[in-house]
């Protein structure tokens, strides 16, 4: 099949929408982002809260993670558009494992030669380690050099807005699910971001690594 075949979705259909907040810009992570992303993924104080739990040792390892992550996103989108045209979604569901590169608008607009990614952020469908319920989870981590500027709170609020605008729902049955987040009790900055953004505490427990965690939810109200 060629890309002009109406039953074959083009790569463009898989693209996650790009959006901005007051100071940040969100674009889908790209294969070419490894070098710009490495500052973040090599920071131990960030990566200790990630599923990987340790920093990437080299740009090559960041590239490997990136390749794997993008392959998952594409596979999800392809699964969504597989099969006869009449039985599949006309548009892939972009809520599946969306991963954004976050840049500072001021940096992008100044045309700086260096490409700097200040955060990795996204949504993934996952089973809660606390309740066992499958739902959508928000996540993000910022390079330590920009902590304390309110960026994470701005990002979380912007991402939640983007999410609910994408699937507003016009009847009770179509009402989109809430957005969840799991935060370690030992991570006060992240707990504070949840509080500032208005997430509600819904459960407490222990994650797969034995870490005490709190689960939060933001409903679309
Ligand atoms: C958690 C993280 C995203 C916060 O990013 P940020 O841009 O600094 O967040 P904000 O500036 O929006 O808000 C942080 C809040 O936490 C507060 N805070 C920071 N460190 C704190 C601490 N040790 N104890 C209590 N509060 C703390 C800040 O004062 C701020 O609150 P305020 O605005 O009321 O003063 C960032 O530290 C990070 O990327 N950490 C590593 C990865 C991570 O933990 N990701 C989240 C996993 S759930």
TrEMBL record:
Ranges of Low complexity composition bias in the record: 71-82
Alphabetized Gene3D superfamilies for the sequence: 3.40.630.30
Span list, region Disordered: 1-22, 69-95
Domain N-acetyltransferase residues, every copy: 23-200
Source organism superkingdom: Eukaryota
Signal sequence interval, chain numbering: none
PANTHER family, sorted: GNAT FAMILY, PUTATIVE (AFU_ORTHOLOGUE AFUA_3G00765)-RELATED-RELATED, N-ACETYLTRANSFERASE DOMAIN-CONTAINING PROTEIN
Name used for this protein in its record: GNAT domain-containing protein
Organism: Aspergillus keveii
């Amino acid at each position: 099949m060629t890309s002009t075949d109406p039953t074959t979705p083009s790569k463009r259909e898989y693209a996650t929408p790009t959006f901005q907040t007051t100071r940040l810009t969100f674009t889908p992570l790209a294969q070419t982002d490894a070098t710009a992303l490495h500052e973040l993924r090599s920071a131990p104080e960030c990566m200790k809260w990630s599923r990987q739990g340790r920093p990437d040792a080299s740009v090559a390892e960041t590239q490997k993670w990136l390749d794997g992550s993008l392959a998952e996103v594409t596979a999800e989108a392809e699964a969504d558009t597989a099969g006869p045209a009449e039985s599949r979604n006309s548009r892939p569901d972009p809520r599946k494992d969306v991963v954004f590169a976050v840049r500072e608008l001021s940096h992008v607009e100044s045309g700086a030669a260096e490409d700097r990614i200040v955060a990795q952020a996204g949504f993934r469908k996952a089973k809660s380690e606390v309740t066992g319920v499958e739902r959508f989870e928000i996540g993000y981590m910022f390079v330590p050099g920009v902590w304390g500027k309110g960026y994470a709170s701005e990002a979380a609020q912007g991402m939640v807005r983007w999410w609910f605008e994408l699937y507003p729902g016009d009847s009770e049955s179509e009402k989109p699910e809430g957005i969840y987040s799991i935060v370690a009790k030992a991570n006060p900055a992240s707990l504070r971001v949840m509080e500032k953004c208005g997430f509600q505490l819904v459960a407490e427990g222990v994650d797969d690594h034995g870490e005490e965690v709190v689960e939060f939810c933001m409903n679309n109200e």
